[in-house]
Amino acid sequence: MSRPKLGEYIRENELFAKKSLGQHFLLDINLTSKIAGLLQIDDDDVIFEIGPGPGGLTQALLNTKAKKIIAIEKDERFVEHLKTYFSDDLGRLEVISGDALKIFPAQYLRDNGIECKSAKIIANLPYNVGTQLFLNWVTGEEKDWEMALMFQMEVAKRICAQTGDNHYGRLAILTQAVCHAHVGMHVPRLAFSPPPKVESAVAVITPKKKNRYDDLETLGKVTQAAFSQRRKMLRSSLAPLGDAEALCEAAGVKPTLRPEQLSPEGFYALCEAVKKN
Ligand code: SAM
Asked: Ligand 1 centre and the CA of 45: distance in Å?
């Protein structure tokens, strides 16, 4: 079915972007198709899209082989719009009105008896809650799902950073304990309507066959303590977890290191020391 062009449609229907919901839209189907193409999508896959907004990426996802696309949107204006604009696809496209911070994708599949070979998340995330959403998934039941997620460039770099990089920190350590992560695509500001202040990038996350470290709860606590005082040495920043010097010694980690100098393996050893403490 031929649909009116998305850009014209949202202008005519006065669906203007709201800053408070981090709304920056991608309306070019060539670009959204490239984002959808960052993951291999099979016909038994279910794709979650968080924050579909006007539906530029939704359209690209509908053009893939996925058996179902579940789109969660907080802005009621767009929920109504998506149901109208994609009325012919409802069934394969499910539009949920709600806050993605409160709807957990794996649990949603279970509660609704939706079965699939694999589930994936592909989204141009709202920047104000993007990091929190990603942390929920990567430390939650979705940690073995593939994801292609648009973040502001800074956040994408923090997810994909290696030890010693400027952006290395809690997000990279938690992510890379269970997933591979790389920047799949840079997206310039002017590709969005309205353009955000900063450049963006899509981080591609794929689960590791075998986790490097399983206890993400302890890893979360240790990295929180270490990086909340980034400029301090471990011997002082780890104090909230116990005798910091003793923890470093038990882990075989130099207490004079700053957190960005410690490898993920060093952090895993610190976690083990904290648990025995
Ligand atoms: N995917 C669309 C695109 O690429 O044009 C819109 C992306 S825009 C950056 C982020 C979208 O997330 C907006 O539609 C916004 O209303 C929605 N959003 C913001 N916070 C949300 C939340 N907590 N739960 C669900 N959707 C949210």
From this structure: 22
d(CA 234, CA 256): 6
Q: In which domain, by residue range, is 59 found?
A: 6-207
Which of helix, strand or coil describes residue 26? Answer: coil
Give the residue from 15, 23, 10, 16 showing the smallest Cα distance to 192. 23
pLDDT digits (tens, 9 = 90+) for 7-55: 888 899 999 999 999 999 999 999 999 999 999 999 999 999 999 999 9
Residues with CB under 6 A from ligand 1: 21-26, 50-54, 56-57, 72-75, 78, 99-101, 124, 126, 129
**Ligand 1 probe mutation, 25, 185, 200, most atoms within 8 A of CB:** 25
Q: Within a domain: residue 1?
A: no
Same domain, 189 and 233: no
Q: Is the pTM of this model over 0.70?
A: yes
